[in-house]
Every structure is written in structure tokens, then in C-alpha cells.
């Protein structure tokens, strides 16, 4: 093989690699805003139409004014849910404060921690979130009431990866009350390791949707569980007498380890709750 052919092949590979890197970087800086609806059997009629905004896995990416303006063009949510990995070790503290400030423009915010939050200064993070009137649910339930006096539960489960999750404590009030329950937890593996028979809807992140997904292969780094539960909607029933659990997994907003995405665009979601008593 001549030197000229070798150089030409090298140049072609370099060009293809450069184009791929540029594409992955541009994809990582994108944002897809989705509109979701979910019908819940136990949702009270007075909560039908309740609108949530869900975003997860910010890491070190910045929420810009343009992102906020894009989100504000949609019908406003009554509650913003932040699904963990609010920051990460080595991330800019100013960037984290900016993200929290931007989210507060969208409405009241309730959050849970993710595994990367515990790799950062989680105590400082918690103090900052409280200063911005953001409620962090650490294995606890929050009662949400409608104008008619009906209620549902919003439960926040602490991080599973670091061993801080305690579903027994988190679900103590909802189990005694038997009302519709929405669970916010960073890692969808809660489906496997926790008893969630009385949960109606679970919202999770953590997977990044695979972050880098190769055509015909899928995510380059994901075990069997996360390949099965990667992103989007799922339904699970533990036994015939348990509440059917509906699970939504977001591909997330930021990136982990490398600032690239492939075939997996960043997401934020508006989720509308629907009562089966009205939709039937």
C-alpha cells in the first residue's frame, strides 16, 4: 500500500471522527421538550389535568435564559420536579446556583438527590437549595391537596446507589392513607430493589437514555437492567392485587463523564396527570 493511500485513509478517518465529535457535542447542547400524559386509576378527579414539569441529571450543564424562555412558551406547570444529579464533583458552584435560580422561574421546585450529588458537597448543596425555597425530599412524603380537599402523595426517595434510600420510611404515610402516590427517585433500579406495590407513578432519571447510543447496538455502557429500562414509559405490576405502577425515565438534561451524546438528545418534560374516572 502506497504512502499516499495510507495518508488518504488517515485523513478520511480524521475527518469522520471530527464530524462525529462535533455532532455529539452539538447533540449534547440540544434540548427536546416533551408533552406527556398519564392516566392513573387512583388519581382523584380534582387532580385531573395537574401539570408537572420533570427534569433530571443537570450535572455541570447550564440552564440558560433561552432554555427558560422555551419552557415558558408552554403552559406553566403547578410543580417542577428535579430528579437528582443536580450537580457533580468538580462542577462550577456558580453554575449550580444559576441552574437552581433558573428553575425557580418556572414554578415551585421539589427535588431528590442523585448519586453524583453525594460525590459533591451535598451539605452545601442542601443549604443552597433551602435558601432558594426548594424542598428536598429525603425518604419522606409530601401531601398535595386540591381546592376540594382531596389529596395525593408526592414521595421522594433518597439515593439508592449510595445506600441512603429507605422506602419503608418514605412510604409510611402513603401506606397508611391509601391515596394516589407519585414517587420521585433518581435511579429507576428502585423498581427492582424496593417494594413499590402502592406507587401509582414513578419518575426517574440516571440513565441519560444511554447517552451514547450506537446504531444497531444501543448504549455503549449499560447493564441488562438499564438496557431494559433505558428511557420513556414502562408499566409494572408486582402481583395481581397491587397497584399497576407506571414508570417514566428521562434521558436527562446534562451529561456524565464526557460532554457528548449520540442518538439520545437531552430532555425536559411536561407531564399531565389524568384521572381514569374522567377519561373512561
What would your notes on this structure say?
- With 280 residues, the chain is α/β, with parallel strands linked by helices.
- The chain has ten helices and 14 strands.
- A six-stranded mixed beta sheet has the order 1-14-2-3-4-5. A six-stranded mixed beta sheet has the order 6-7-8-9-13-12.
- The longest helix is centred in the N-terminal third of the chain and has 26 residues, at 3-28.
- The protein is globular.
Distance between the termini: 71 Å
Tally of DSSP helical segments: 10
- What is the number of strand segments? 14
Q: Biggest β-sheet, characterized?
A: 6 strands, mixed
Mind sketching the topology for me?
Layout: H1 3-28, E1 32-40, E2 51-55, H2 65-72, E3 79-82, H3 93-104, E4 109-111, H4 115-119, H5 122-131, E5 135-136, E6 140-145, E7 151-157, H6 167-170, H7 172-177, E8 181-185, H8 190-193, E9 201-204, E10 213-214, E11 218-219, H9 224-228, E12 232-236, E13 245-249, E14 267-275, H10 276-279
Parallel strand pairs: 1-14, 2-3, 3-4, 4-5, 7-8, 8-9, 9-13
Antiparallel strand pairs: 2-14, 6-7, 10-11, 12-13
Please tag this protein with its features.
280 residues; alpha/beta
Summary, kept brief:
With 280 residues, this protein is an alpha/beta fold.
